[in-house]
Design brief:
By secondary structure, the chain is of the alpha+beta class. Among the domains are: 137 residues, no CATH class; 210 residues, no CATH class. The chain contains 22 helices and 10 strands. The protein has a 4-stranded antiparallel beta sheet with strand order 1-2-3-5. Strands 4-9-8-6 form a 4-stranded mixed beta sheet. A two-stranded antiparallel sheet has the order 7-10. A hairpin with a 5-residue loop joins strand 2 and strand 3. Helix 15 crosses helix 20 and helix 17 packs antiparallel against helix 18. It starts with a helix and ends with a helix. The relative contact order is 0.07.
Length: 523
């Protein structure tokens, strides 16, 4: 434990120096900081680079210097304005992976090891990297069918050793979060340990490219009937844990508006498709792309919106989807009372608070933005107000809803960049009303009733067996406790061995630490 604490302290010290040197800590006001932190912030201003650049540039430079774990942490915290604040979250939104490429030889060796054969036998042509991120990089390649036809593909390759680096850093993040929750009430409300666990799960899934391939397939299956959307096909024969091969997309990035207009695409129509596609994914399917920034969105020659990079996905249960639909519908119809009630029904707001007071707070957020076009809505201000309300009414952090909320902000921002006059609420209304009609209306009620009857019938068929097993357990418990509980000699011997083993490793750790300290002292 002492070793881990020392390592964590060293990592924190290095991270603090890099953040100070790149000018990130200079963005914080010493007046707003805790008293103990104010001298450190003043020192940070003295060592900051003079040419640190803009706020986003400072974050990008610092996190890139700290390595892939911190780049990924920065991207993740962009989805958590409740933790870092709305302004910092906005700065982190534009954080781009600026990692060096792993090198052509290393990439080809990774492919050869993954498929146990030379690269030339896997791909007809394997080009250099076209993009490098914190976890993986992408190469352009060609594959050849049996009839000699060639197809262009995108090959995503995991960085060698990235799992070990992430595992070490995640351990430090967990211990720091545990310390914060143990000592600070606000950290407990924000559930920082849950934040780190969510990040760790997300990263572990991203580092197994088989799971990303499955996400591509599930998303494509869900939107199969949506002719306006396309998801690249997965080449399963050339995909595995460390390599993912998908259809190559020749399209125009949404960030290139001039090229979109020159190609004859309707920017307002694209904006509508983006917004409604995301809402369908979230509410209809309960499985949504959670990283829909312009770099992951293209328009192909057929005018379809193409979504790539399924490394970060969100999933919502029926309860969360109903919550989302009713909240959006409440804002659309200005039914603030119902919007407040939904929070209480979902258990997100403690019952000791007043529904009327919460409805008043929701009205304060909703009225200023109702019936305004997107260019008149400050999403940053709206987000800040929502966060103030959650703190005021003791709402605990809901990671899945915050990821959804933040993705909605990003999607709305992308759509607004294409159509500044887009009315988000008017665009969302048809999707929300369709979901409510199908799930909360008469048809939905009948479907749920049928599902409930089916579950009751299934329970009735399993009830006799359940009662028999319960009676058998009770008989065994009665026999075991008739003369008092006792442990068998084998159990006692096992406990003794475990205690002896624990004592041995504890003593060994102490001797190792002592030897290290003596070595440092003598050196």
């Amino acid at each position: 434990m002492i070793f881990f604490l020392a390592a964590d302290a060293a990592r924190l010290a290095r991270a603090g120096y890099v953040l100070a040197r790149e000018g990130v800590l200079s963005l914080m006001s010493p007046v707003a900081a805790p008293p103990l932190a104010r001298p450190l912030l003043r020192i940070a201003r003295l060592i900051a680079r003079k040419d640190a650049g803009s706020r986003p540039a400072r974050f990008s430079a610092a996190l890139s210097r700290l390595g892939p774990s911190y780049v990924k942490l920065g991207q993740f915290l962009a989805t958590r304005p409740d933790v870092v604040g709305a302004s910092v979250a906005r700065d982190l939104e534009v954080l781009q992976d600026r990692m060096p490429i792993i090198g052509q030889e290393v990439a080809e060796a990774t492919v050869a090891e993954a498929f146990e054969r030379p690269v030339r036998e896997v791909y007809a042509q394997f080009g250099p990297a076209v993009a490098a991120a914190s976890i993986a990089e992408v190469h352009k390649a060609e594959v050849e069918d049996k009839d000699g036809t060639r197809h262009t593909v995108a090959v995503k390759i995991l960085r060698p050793g990235v799992e070990r680096r992430f595992s070490s850093d995640m351990g430090s993040f967990r211990r720091i979060a545990h310390f914060a929750e143990t000592n600070f009430a606000e950290a407990r409300r924000l559930r920082l340990e849950t934040v780190v666990d969510t990040l760790a799960r997300s990263v572990s899934m991203e580092m197994d490219l088989r799971l990303e391939a499955a996400a591509y397939a599930e998303l494509a299956e869900n939107i199969g009937a949506d002719k306006e959307i396309h998801v690249p096909r997965v080449d399963w024969d050339r995909s595995g844990r460390e390599v993912l091969t998908t259809e190559w997309i020749d399209g125009i990035k949404l960030s290139d508006k001039e090229a979109l207009v020159a190609a004859g695409h309707d920017l307002k129509e694209i904006a509508r498709v983006i917004m409604q596609s995301f809402l369908k994914q979230a509410m209809r399917d309960g499985f949504f792309h959670a990283d829909m920034h312009p770099g992951n969105l293209f328009v192909d020659a057929q005018g379809r919106l193409v979504i790539v990079d399924c490394g970060i996905m969100g999933r919502l249960g029926l309860k969360e989807r109903r919550f989302l639909a009713e909240i959006l519908y409440g804002f659309i119809t200005r039914n603030w009372r119902r919007t407040a009630e939904v929070h209480f029904e979902a258990g997100y707001v403690p019952l000791h608070h007043s529904v009327d007071d919460f409805a008043l707070a929701i009205r304060a957020i909703g009225e200023p933005i109702h019936s305004r076009t997107a260019d008149q809505i400050s999403m940053a201000r709206l987000l800040a107000l929502l966060l103030e309300v959650t703190a005021l009414f003791d709402m605990q952090t809901r990671p899945e809803l915050l990821l959804l909320q933040k993705t909605m902000v990003v999607v709305e921002g992308v759509a607004r960049s294409l159509d500044p006059q887009l009315d988000m609420w008017k665009t969302a209304r048809p999707v929300v009303e369709d979901w409510i009609a199908g799930n909360l209306g008469p048809v939905g009620q009948l479907q749920r009733a049928g599902g409930g009857l089916s579950e009751m019938a299934h329970f009735a068929t399993t009830l006799p067996g359940l009662l028999t097993r319960t009676a058998r357990v009770m008989e065994q418990l009665d026999v075991a406790t008739r003369d008092g509980l006792s442990l068998s000699p084998a159990s006692l011997e096992g406990i003794g061995r475990a205690e002896a083993k624990r004592a041995f490793w504890g003593n060994l750790a102490l001797w190792v630490i002592a030897a290290a300290l003596v070595g440092i002292w003598l050196g």
